Amino acid sequence: MAVIEVDNIVKEYMVVKKEGGLRGAVKGLLFPERRKVRGVDGISFKIEPGEIVGYIGPNGAGKSTTIKMLTGILHPTSGSIRVCGISPQEDRKAVVGKLGVVFGQRTQLYWDLRLAESFELLRRIYQVDESTYRETMATLERVLKLGEFMDTPVRQLSLGQRMRGDLAAAMLHSPSVLFLDEPTIGLDAEAKHAIRDFIKQMNRERGLTVILTTHDLDDVEQLCSRLVIVNHGKVVEDGPIGTLIGKLTPKRQLVVELERPCADIAHPAAEVLKQEGLKIWYQFEKQRITAAELIADLSRKLPIQDLSVKEPDIEDAIREVYKAKPEEAGVVEATEPVAAV
Ligand SMILES: Nc1ncnc2c1ncn2[C@@H]1O[C@H](COP(=O)(O)OP(=O)(O)OP(=O)(O)O)[C@@H](O)[C@H]1O
Fold this sequence. Notes:
This protein is an alpha/beta fold. 35% of the residues lie in helices and 30% in strands.
């Protein structure tokens, strides 16, 4: 049985149309013109146990709205959702017991308590019995290396430590599904690595199902086996990462800094985008040549002082690949949210 079944869900919001200028503002106050917009417009997908799925799309695509409906915070205007066979609308409490949620930008830890006290409070809220809690906590402490800051007040934790704390908090009640919203945002390379390692380990050892929204291409490449790509409230692609990632990010850039000027900087498999002094920007297609091959070729003929590979922006790539006609978009500009309907 699928862990998550989403069948043709729609979410409509009421918004007030805004008009420019003082006259427009007064008119808007006296005679607000309301209209419905679709934040999610007929989304369907199924997720099987143990999958790690990247749920990605540009800003305003409908990712948060979908996650809020899956967790029961919002109700769909139409369509149906099952999480572990349960409808979040009908029994939110039961669904919450099956889910762990981590928002990179917010914390569910208690700012004024020490980390260990925060966990104890969450244990009581989730009604985890003490022996199960001790066992789970021992694993989480070891894998996430929480020991050194268990007694630190949450407000004094670094962002990376707090994220590790938040992941542990989300796993305290041994959920079957973990929702991660930008789990590595703002973290340094080492902290990102620790977070990704933990997710992989929980998935491998406990069969944890993970849904991940992220703007970080490395998160997607290193964690996800499948991508569901949304744009303008609709699923535009759903498939294995191997086939989709190349389509989304066909082009990369290599920035090379030379030690001294050179006349022949061309390469047959890469385009020179621009040159500023000793710095050259090459653009190349992953399918045609790998970064390592290009670097090896160039360093044979050029005196390279420094270089870096630039990944394309995942958001721009999605927008570019899945350009929708405005009438299909279902999104109205210059509107102000009023209410979910
Ligand atoms: N409370 C609300 N009232 C009105 N419209 C809303 C509301 N919440 C979201 N929307 C609209 O619904 C659409 C989907 O928004 P949503 O926040 O789900 O997108 P997202 O993909 O999560 O974007 P981001 O990456 O910026 O978080 C957007 O057009 C947004 O403006």
